[in-house]
Amino acid sequence: MNDPRITIMQGGITKMEVDAIINAANQTLLGGGGVDGAIHRAAGPELKEECRSLGGCKTGEAKLTRGYQLPARYIIHTVGPIWKGGQRNEDQLLAQCYRNSLAIALAKGISTLAFPSISTGAYGFPLKQACRIALQEVKTFLGQDTTIKQIYFVCFSEQDFKQYQEAFQTMQA
Ligand code: AR6
To answer: Per its UniProt entry, which superkingdom is the organism in (predicted)?
Structure first.
């Protein structure tokens, strides 16, 4: 059955009008390139100030900040694994990113949130494998008792968008 609470779309995550967006950050939480850079630029310099007070973040874990100039009220920063060939617990660490981000959202009473494709840019995680993990974790989470009403997967490129759609359709079968 198609879960109406999951939406796959193409676009920029900084524009999303949701309670929280997820950032694919690095362990310093002090900004970087890719989606992390875009989020810091759009949120403004106060975000970095708050991030500085958090003392970094381990791979697989997640931390919450305000959204500042973003339409989103909160940002959940998570650190995906760097792909090293698949024998370094990368799958489990990526799954933890989704699980821990969702746990924070639930604890905050958040009802709408948007994920980027964590680890599949600079960190090199194979896209097909990563989006299967992302969708699996979100579906498992939504199968439990939750206040979350809508989860967007915001794909930046058309290639990512197609891959997510394909994985989603395969999982419905
Ligand atoms: N909205 C949605 N997705 C985006 C956006 C955007 N505005 N911009 C890029 N993407 P990456 P990672 C996509 O490299 O692999 C940073 O420097 C992008 O096309 O941002 O987890 C951090 O500081 C790709 O599909 O994150 C870390 O050092 C996805 O976001 C490192 O990169 C993730 O690509 C983290 O690497």
So the answer is: Bacteria
